[in-house]
Amino acid sequence: MIAKKKAKEIKYEVTENAHQIWLAGLGAVAMAQEEGGKLFSTLVKKGEGYEKIGRDKVGQAMGAVSGVKVVAESYWETFERTLDDKVTAVIHRLGVPTKDEIDILTERVEKLTSAIDKLRVAGSPAPAKTAAKKAPAKKADGGASGAAE
Questions:
Q1: Using CA atoms, how far apart are residues 68 and 76, in angstroms rounded to an integer?
Q2: Distance between alpha carbon 14 and the CA centroid of its chain, in Å?
Q3: pLDDT for residue 129 is more than 70
Q4: How many helices (H) and strands (E) does the chain have?
Q5: How far apart (Å, rounded) are the C-alpha atoms in residues 113 and 92?
Q6: Which 3 state secondary structure label does DSSP give 89?
Q7: Alpha-carbon separation of residue 81 from 84, 92, 96 (angstroms)
Q8: Per-chain mean pLDDT for the chain
Q9: Do residues 102 and 110 make contact, with C-beta atoms less than 8 angstroms apart?
Q10: What is the pLDDT of residues 89-105, one digit of tens each?
Q11: What CA–CA distance (Å, rounded) separates 34 from 140?
């Protein structure tokens, strides 16, 4: 009988402990719901404050970056000009003409070619007669070389 009584007490204690654990779990869920809403609201308010601070910092950074960009572009342009000048100086020392010099020479050659063509047409009596005079001389040479062979 004592064993039955002891078993009932243990069963009651286990049941009571399990019930208390269950109630503690329900209390935790209820508290989390209540506190979770408050916590969520608090987190939203803090987030809004940090968002404003972040936007201000981003605006300041954008201004600083813009200023640095202008300075960097200026330095880059100066570097490009200096590099171009140095490369041009080396090219001149080597005797390589520039594009402008080549363009000027090309234009002069075209003008000279045109002038020579005009002189040929206007100044020569007939290119065929000149060829005819040279042709007999070639035949005479051709005959002489043919006889020698």
A1: 12
A2: 72
A3: no
A4: 3, 0
A5: 28
A6: helix
A7: 5, 16, 20
A8: 79
A9: no
A10: 888 888 888 888 899 99
A11: 126
Extract the tokens encoding 67: 């200023």
What is the rounded distance in angstroms from the CA atom of residue 130 to the CA atom of residue 136?
11
| Residue 68 amino acid letter | V
Instruction: Please check whether residue 97 is in contact with residue 105, taking contact to mean a CB–CB distance below 8 angstroms.
Output: yes
Can you read off the two tokens belonging to residue 73? 């572009």
Q: Is residue 145 predicted with pLDDT exceeding 80?
A: no
Task: Please report where in the chains the tokens 């605006």 appear, as a residue.
Answer: 59
Judged by DSSP in three states, 36 sits in helix
Calpha distance 146→149 (Å, rounded): 5
Cβ atoms of 91 and 98 closer than 8 Å? yes
User: Which strand (E) or helix (H) includes residue 75?
Assistant: helix 2-94
Do 98 and 88 form a contact (C-beta atoms < 8 A)?
yes
- Token reading at 22: 């269950």
Q: Round to whole Å and give the CA distance between 57 and 55.
A: 5
Lowest mean pLDDT, pick from 1-15, 16-30, 68-82: 1-15
- Tens digit of pLDDT for each residue in 38-50? 777 887 888 888 8
Half-sphere exposure for 147 (CA within 13 Å, toward CB): 5
